[in-house]
Amino acid sequence: MKKGNTIINALKKTLALVLVAALAFTLAQPLTAQAKAKKVTLDKQGFTTDLEKIQSCAKEVKKGNTVIVLKHPQNKTYEGYAKFTAPATKTYTITYSNLKPERKKGYCNGHITGYFISGQTITDAKLIKSGYEHSIHLANEKFMGAVTSKTVKVKLEKGQTLYLLHSFLNNKKPKSVTVDLKIK
Length: 184
Known about the structure:
By secondary structure, the protein is α+β, with helices and mostly antiparallel strands. The protein is 23% helix and 45% strand. The strands form two sheets. Strands 2, 4, 6, 7, 8 and 10 form a six-stranded mixed sheet that branches. Strands 1-3-11-5-9 form a five-stranded mixed sheet.
């Protein structure tokens, strides 16, 4: 009987170790996905029709996961431009989610607006399924119809650049606001 008990105890210990390893692996997955996202801090710049200013301050984002960081609010508004240049002609899916002020200070909401620049002309980008023609509205909490995640599509030609103006408000004025961006 003692020999049988030691085999059962050994099996129990082995099974417990396997379960602990599986649990640790499962819990580590979200952390790994977040760690793979590239952080891009946008220069403080609100809406402007100055094409040179937009082109010079817009930070490049690529396909995949990016955490957009906006710092130094101007009158409780966090604004900045990002740009995405299409590597191929196709319809791209753009998802914004996880808008959050630093240290979860207060309610934060706003919008991301898409633009194209051609020569000396700036035009609105048509973002399919945005609910609005050329902008994405987002908040850090579901409140009065606000959404916390939004997916849109935009058709781009190879080499065409989409400029994205990020503009968020927060009444608590934290040092920064972040939002997750996924382009595929």
